[in-house]
Design goal:
single chain; alpha+beta; Protein Transport Mog1p, Chain A; three-stranded antiparallel sheet; 26% helix; globular
Length: 168
Amino acid sequence: MSRFFKALLILATVISCSPKETTQKVSFKQVEFQIPAEWKHNVEELEKNFAYQITSTDSLEINLFTIGWLESELDPEIYVDAMKQGLLEETDEIFYEFGDYENEKFMGADAIRSHFKAKTEAYEATGKMYVFKKYGKSYFILIQGSSYFFESKSANKILSSLKIQETK
């Protein structure tokens, strides 16, 4: 066997034996996504038959992914302003600093995105908010974490696993 084929065989063995990142599927109603296996998540019906939220986080609650939605379309600028205000009023322990809104495409829909920084006495995190309309509903996504969470592409893996199905 040539050296080239031996090298390929060794490489294939190393790749197949390397540890796989385990995930868990989170789904509720029309929303589905994958988070790391060791994360926890909570599904809430915030207002009966109208407003829902799924919050997922690591054990330290520094890295998180939250998606919420309304069973009707709301102007994205009004929705993002309301969510931003809600975060600012949520607690005195976290200081948020928001960037300007940017228009972009997200999951094939027109979306508003804003970057932010969150600081407490114990940690500092960065994040992104997305607000968009899809299938007659309004969605809000907040993804926050340490610099490693974003540099390791963990945040992108969660976002890219997100699926929203049309409901009838």
